[in-house]
Amino acid sequence: MPMHNPDKYTINEIAGFIRRGQMTSVSLVEHYLDQIETGNSRVNAVCASAPRETLLSLARAADLEAARGQLRGPLHGVPITIKDVCHVAGYRMSRGIAELQSEPSIRDATVVGRLKAAGAIIMGITNVPELCMAFETDNFLYGLTRNPHSLERSAGGSSGGEAAAIAAGFSPSGLASDACGSIRLPAHFNGICGLKLTQGRVPLTGQFPNERSGLFHITSAFGALGRYVDDIDTFGKLLSGPDGQDPDTVEVPFYRAKPLGELRVATYWEPGSVMVSDAVRSVIEDVTKVLEPAVARICPDQPKGMKEAADVLWRIFITGGDSGRGWKAMFAAMGKDQFTPALGRLIEFAQENEMSVDEVRRDWIMIDTFRYHLAAFFDRYDALITPVYTEVAFSHGESMENPSQYVFVFPFSLSGSPAVVVPAGTDPVTGLPIGVQIVGPHWHENQLLDLARLIERQLGGWQRAALQ
Question: Is the pTM here over 0.90, yes or no?
Answer without folding.
Answer: yes
